[in-house]
Amino acid sequence: MLRKRSKRDNWPGIRTRSSPIQLARCIKVLSFEQRMAVKEMGFGRLLKFKVDGMLAKLANYVVERFNPSTMEINLPCGNIKENVEAIHKLLGIPRTDVHLSSLPNLAEKDEAIRRWKDRFPRRYVSPTRMVDMIESSVEVDTFNFRMDFLMCFVTVMIDCHKQGCFRPWILHHITCELDFARINWCQLVLEKLKKCKNGWKSNDLNRSFKGALTVLILLYVDSVRCRGMEVDYSIYPMTFWTKEKLKQREKVEISSGGFGSGKLKSFTVCKDKIDDEPTVQVCKDNI
């Protein structure tokens, strides 16, 4: 949950249950074998994920500017379109022709799903608990591990319960035979983005934002140049942007007159490399 707002604050903050910190932590604790399993699931690029926090003012501005009807972030400098291609370029997750919602909605959960859920004693399971399970478990590449990682990703990056825990509806579409790499997860992000502002109001401190906040923030900071800040466009946005760099970005934009005033640029596209350390090429936005 991010900072409370002041009535005199020209740039109010947001309250959210969608902090990326647990996904960043999850990536750090994975073993070599678990990282290989994540790649087989089709989520290999997420192994470069380093976004370990959000900034309240920047986040609130971007969410306020997001229009679910047109699927655009509307800014003074132009509009940022949200579509499958944009999500895939940003996260590298699968974009196949199989939608999760098209799979059978099972009245009774699959036996493997029930066993996975029974590992957590409480009704509501948070990303923190799932990462704790990954870190403490001796399981390397099992269905339970893959479910822990998948549900951590979905809860943090796509949609969560008002308490910050995973929503159980997804469990009725998953069986132990399902190949996660065959699912269009980009489409699921878009489907949930269309509903992410339902019931949310910027000035209502009793309502937390529960949608794909990290996705919206990364699309914004990657699409809008920030004059006076060094940004490395040779690496993925989810690798470059950390909480500390977002803090710097927020400060620079506010001191320059406000958010959304830079020039639009195309999405950063990097070529995947065998190693995890791409060549650094820093560019300073002075336009």
Instruction: Estimate the mean pLDDT confidence.
Output: 88
Distance between the termini: 35 Å
Largest sheet entry: 3 strands, antiparallel
What structural class do the secondary elements suggest? Answer: mainly alpha
Q: Tally the helices: what do you get?
A: 11
Supply Rg: 19 Å
Elements, N to C (H/E) = HHHEEEHHHHHHEHHE
Which stretches of 5+ consecutive residues score pLDDT under 50? 1-8, 274-284
Strand residue percentage: under 5%
Main β-sheet, spatial strand arrangement? 1-2-3
Q: What percent of the residues sit in helical stretches (DSSP H or I)?
A: 25-40%
Strand count: 5
CA-based shape: globular
Fold topology:
Blueprint (H helix, E strand, L loop, with lengths): L20 H9 L2 H9 L15 H10 E2 L4 E4 L2 E4 L2 H8 L19 H8 L8 H10 L6 H15 L27 H9 L19 H11 L6 E2 L5 H4 L2 H13 L27 E2 L3
Antiparallel strand pairs: 1-2, 2-3, 4-5
Helix pairs in contact: 1-6, 1-7, 3-9, 4-8, 5-7, 6-7
Compact overview of the structure:
The chain is 37% helix and 5% strand. It has 287 residues and is mainly alpha-helical. Mean pLDDT is 88; it is low at 1-8 and 274-284.
